[in-house]
Amino acid sequence: MKIVLTAVAAAGLLAAASGSAQAQIAYTNSVLLGCYAHSNTSLDTPSNAVGQDTVGTFCFDGNGNEVGSSGTPGLSGHVTSTDGVVKTKTDQTATYSVTNTPGDGMGTIVEKCGTFTFSVAHVNAQGVAQSFRFILTKSTGNCTGGPTMVGGSAEYQGPLN
Prior knowledge:
Layout (H helix, E strand, L loop, with lengths): L1 H19 L12 E10 L9 E10 L3 E2 L10 E6 L2 E5 L4 E5 L7 E6 L2 E10 L5 E11 L10 E9 L3
Antiparallel strand pairs: 1-2, 1-10, 2-4, 3-6, 4-5, 6-7, 7-8, 8-9, 9-10
């Protein structure tokens, strides 16, 4: 009887130990593939307070590029309202890299005005992110009149055609 209980206890410990060990998922640039609707808002310091809200679309090719088009469909672009001044930008392009650092599914988007850090929030069975979150982590100084802190989210719209 004692041997049976010991074997059962050992099996339970092995099951618990194997259940707690998780393999790291090594996401690649292909996790961002298609177009995503995004919205973000800014929060700035009082000395240079700029209130900005943005809605738009990011389109990614799965190979490290955010793609834009000045035609229809516009692919990547956005509308911003900065302290009540509305501006539209089309043909937005950038590069991105899924680095899995400091965590799984994290990476950077580098555009003219700065670098954004993102984290994928949900990946479907085909390995495509259904949503991600992003923040501005480095401003390049190449753009003026914009916010110093930006955070937002993006939801999958559909494939890039």
